[in-house]
Amino acid sequence: MRAGQDEPIRGASVRRVGRRRALAAGLLAAAMALTACTSGGGDKPSSWQGGDGGEEAPKAAATISEPAADAKDVPASTAITFTTKEAQDTTVELKDAAGTVVDGTLAADGGSWLPSSALEYGQTYTATVTATGDDGKAATATSTFTTMAKPAKQIRITSFLGDDQVVGVGMPLIVKFGRAIPEDYRDDIQRRMTVTSKPAQEGIWHWVSPTEVRYRPRTFWKASSTVSYRVQAGGLPLGGGWYGRADLSVDIKIGPALVMTVDNSTKRMTVTRDGKVVKTIPVSLGKKSTPSSSGTMVVIEKLRHTVFDTMEELGPEEGYRTEIDYAQRLTWGGEFIHAAPWSEGVQGRTNVSHGCVNVSMKEGSWLFANTRIGDPITVKGTERKLQNGNGWTDWNMSWDEYVKGSALPYDPPAADVTPDAGTPSVEPTP
User: Fold this and answer.
1) What are the two backbone dihedrals, phi and then psi, of residue 47, each rounded to the nearest 5 degrees?
2) Which of 7, 168, 316, 326 could tie 375 with a disulfide, CB 3.0–4.6 Å?
């Protein structure tokens, strides 16, 4: 039975008792009034005259809508949802059965409160919402509920990045799910995904598949930013009887704004750091039969030494098996920046590669030592456009395109979230 629903028989009994008490009180008041009129009185009134009948009720009011009082099998991810009336100040407190206070945060809209982490399974909690009006009087609402037993079907949630990792200014935040998330549940989990950056920067989540969602700011991350992101999915219903296994939180750092730009017309790579040109490197791009992709990519992985083997893919006539130094992957299709000593004689003049950005051994070593995972590179003027999805191509889309991949409507930030004017900013050029 929910709070506020009286048992019929008990409720009727209470009302009858209330009427009898009211009748008795009325008769007593009439008798007292008659005595007061017939007895001689002085100027001082009797003690009952002018009484207020008790303290006035608070102006404010509070009601908890979820979880309902005495609710069972409540998801461990539950938020405390409530409404208030004429409240100047509102506080929420959640305690477990032992009386220990649970940490949490009030939502920006002031209508819900979310615990800092998933609640324990099979435990009883009591939520108390206190609303205080301009009269200084507090009104409270409480709800005691019990969380569900630990579910058997749980979805693992992972992050590509780990704590304290330093990445490039083009690095998207990547979160993966061990099972496809139905479209109807993506908005639920996206509401539990938060990103905090210092300085503050505008950004949004974008679903690239049912099992992967990424976040990027509107422009490249500000150099030397700190970024924290959380996925509060522990115990969260994710469709088909599946629930999030656990919450996820990651703290990373953004390195210098190292940006590479390759122009096919000049066969040169220009490298800037925090907006200043630090290197110009001759390159050889893909020949006409295997052109390099034009678009904005980021460094996905770095391999000091590796072997390129295309024998299975291209066959014995076209394929090759070659040892490579200073390789930096840009696409899943096999485009890299790498040292190519065999093409040093034509670098800066002719394209001879199979789609990669060839540089000399010396420049390859320098790039490898100075770049990070997530550093962006834009290639311009080739015969082929970069295909979205062929790598971390989040920056190959316009902001308007990227916003369409969100499961929630885009809500532009307040004006005070605009990046600091004094911090160098690099705008991607899809």
Assistant:
1) -65, -25
2) 168
Three-state SS sequence of the chain: CCCCCCCHHHHHHHHHHHHHHHHHHHHHHHHHHHHHHHCCCCCCCCCCCCCCCCCCCCCCEEEEEECCCCCCCECCCCCEEEEEECCCEEEEEEEECCCCECCEEECCCCCEEEECCCCCCCCEEEEEEEEECCCCCEEEEEEEEEECCCCCCEECEEECCCCCCEECCCCCEEEEECCCCCHHHHHHHHHCEEEEEECCCCEEEEEEECCEEEEEECCCCCCCCEEEEEECCCCCECCCCCEECCCEEEEEEECCCEEEEEECCCCEEEEEECCEEEEEEECECECCCCCCEEEEEECCEEEEEEEEECHHHHHHHHCCEEEEEEEEECCCCCCEEEECHHHCCCCCCCCCECCCEEECHHHHHHHHHHCCCCCEEEEECCCEECCCCCCCCHHHCCHHHHHCCCCCCCCCCCHHHCCCCCCCCCCCCC
Q: Which of 174, 382, 407 is nearest to 298 (CA)?
A: 174
Pairing of strands 124-132, 157-159: unpaired
- Rounded-to-integer distance, Cα 386 and Cα 291, Å: 11
CB atoms within 10 A of CB 47: 7
Instruction: Pull the structure tokens for residue 27.
Output: 């008769």
Which amino acid appears at position 79 of this protein?
Answer: A
Please tell me the distance from the alpha carbon of residue 396 to that of residue 399, in angstroms, as a whole number. 9
Could you read off the pLDDT tens digit of each residue along the chain, which spans 430 residues?
A: 333 333 333 333 333 333 333 333 343 343 333 333 333 344 433 333 334 455 789 999 999 999 999 999 999 999 999 999 999 999 999 999 999 999 999 998 889 999 999 999 999 999 999 999 999 999 999 999 999 999 999 999 999 999 999 999 999 999 999 999 999 999 999 999 999 999 999 999 999 999 999 999 999 999 999 999 999 999 999 999 999 999 999 999 999 999 999 999 999 999 999 999 999 999 999 999 999 999 999 999 999 999 987 667 667 777 677 899 999 999 999 999 999 999 999 999 999 999 999 999 999 999 999 999 999 999 999 999 999 999 999 999 999 999 999 999 998 877 654 444 333 333 333 3
